[in-house]
Specification:
The protein is mostly helical. 62% of the residues lie in helices and 6% in strands. Helix 1 packs across helix 2. It is elongated, with a radius of gyration of 19 Å.
Length: 108
């Protein structure tokens, strides 16, 4: 039997109000860092900062729904940006007609 202060989660996991408060605080802390960072990366990319906000929010929702771990890092980070740059740097020498196709396949 579960203790009175525990609720059964959607996947049969025990989750307390204390855990919820900790998760809320962690989410607010990450948002305080990730949202300005996403806007800065959008400015660096030469697009409107709101697209950085959209991408940060949408990728977080997608990662939380389809993610395999509660410790997965998503959104724009310095390490991920370097990996993406190194994967896409070959596009500079590629003919312009093949660049969109290469970007699509690199995203997969």
């Amino acid at each position: 039997m579960l203790a009175p202060n525990f609720a059964r989660g959607p996947f049969g996991l025990n989750y307390s109000r204390g855990d919820g408060r900790k998760d809320l605080l962690a989410g607010l802390t990450v948002a305080a860092i990730a949202l300005p960072e996403a806007m800065a990366y959008a400015v660096i990319a030469g697009v409107d900062p709101r697209f950085g906000l959209y991408s940060s929010i949408v990728i977080t929702i997608i990662a939380s729904v389809f993610g395999s771990s509660s410790h997965v890092i998503n959104g724009p980070t310095s390490a991920i940006s370097l990996v993406v740059f190194s994967a896409l740097v070959f596009l500079i020498r590629m003919p312009a007609s093949k660049q969109p196709k290469a970007c699509f396949f690199s995203a997969l």
